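One chain is below:
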Amino acid sequence: MAALLSTASMAFSAELNIYNWGEYINPEVLKKFEEETKIKVNLSTYSSNEEMLAKIQGGATGYDIVFPSVHMQDIMAKLDLLEKTDINQYEGFKNIDPQFLRAKSDPNGEYCLPYAFGTVGILYNRTVLGKDITGWHDLFETAKAKGVKFTLLDDMREVMAVGMMLNGHSVNSTNPAELQQAADTIIAIKPEVAAFTYDSRPMVQSGDVAAAHFFVGGMVDVFGDPKNLGYVIPEEGATMYQEDICVLKTAPNKENAIKFMQFYTRPEVAALNIAQQTNGTPNVPARQLTPENIKNSKEINPTDETMKRLQIFEDLGSGLRQLDRAWTKVKTAQ
């Protein structure tokens, strides 16, 4: 594990090993925690829920804290991988909006702390498209008419979700006919798809592609170049992600892990993180402490009306095999 922050002059008396998504935490947050507690933070990163779970199930024992998406938290709970922390008894937990207690396995927040949320929409280059777009159908028609391409995420659930939503189905459906319809919808637009990739931000910025299926974290680029770039939550609906801070049963530093969770309930800490991440925060008072462009962004802080159009992934259990078959059809279609 690589140490993220090691200040030679600081006398650390303890350690905390954090395993998080890449670039999903502001280094300033970890530095602040180190300075206040004298606990040395070691950060390792992963790029998907599945990668993280495989590592933990494969016997990796050094990690204290992980940040699973809600459906992965439920899977990990079933596998008895998570420690009960009683974080909901801590005074700072009052700052958390109850609607973000979404894990079916943890409806009261006895195990994990809601961390951050966001949407998966379309990051686009309005100069290439010649307009602002409203959603998927608008993008497909505009891209075809102009002879330009866009990218989709290299992510089975997110791409299949687009197909499901465009046909009016739940993103958690495992109905074979609905999955086939979703696959057919995605296969039909493949001629306009430049690639299935997570590395699309630079391609949109440069204009090499017109748009990308991407996370709201791409708003960081929009703020940097508002003339050329935009992000839209598609009018047809979108998925919403949410990650939570969880302590592993195998954590060697459980007390330090709980100290970090308590630290993260503080509004100024959550706001410091969001200032760099451009995600939404479940910490209600923190929202008022974020920079004006984030606080006022309807893309980052969707309206109640928009929230009704958002769907969040659930654990599909054995139904995941049906989804995998449909996804294989999409990826192999010529």
